[in-house]
Amino acid sequence: MTHQEQSLADDKMRAEIAKLLAETKQINVNTFLAPALAAAALMAGTATLVKLFF
Fold first, then answer.
1. 20 to 30 A Cα–Cα from 10, which one of 19, 28, 38, 45?
2. Cα 24 from chain centroid (whole Å)
3. Residues 47, 48, 50, 54: what is their CA dihedral angle, to the nearest 10 degrees?
4. C-alpha–C-alpha distance, residues 49 and 54, integer Å
């Protein structure tokens, strides 16, 4: 494998790693943020109902 081919292979590997890291970050945000926002909305709705009737 020539130096140019090795450099290209390295660049491809770095790009793949960057892509996987970005996808992992997106998955982590979705698994934490979505339930947290749903819980916050549920608590706000419950508090509004309680305040409205009591």
1. 28
2. 6
3. 130
4. 8
Helix, coil or strand: residue 1: coil
1 CB contacts (<8 Å, ≥6 apart)?
Answer: 9
pTM of the model: 0.60
Return d(Cα 22, Cα 25) in angstroms, integer. Answer: 5
Q: What is the pLDDT of residues 18-54, one digit of tens each?
A: 999 999 999 988 898 889 999 999 999 999 999 998 8
List Cβ neighbours of 9 (8 Å cut-off, separation of 6 or more): 1
Asked whether the CA dihedral 45, 48, 50, 53 is positive or negative, the reply is negative
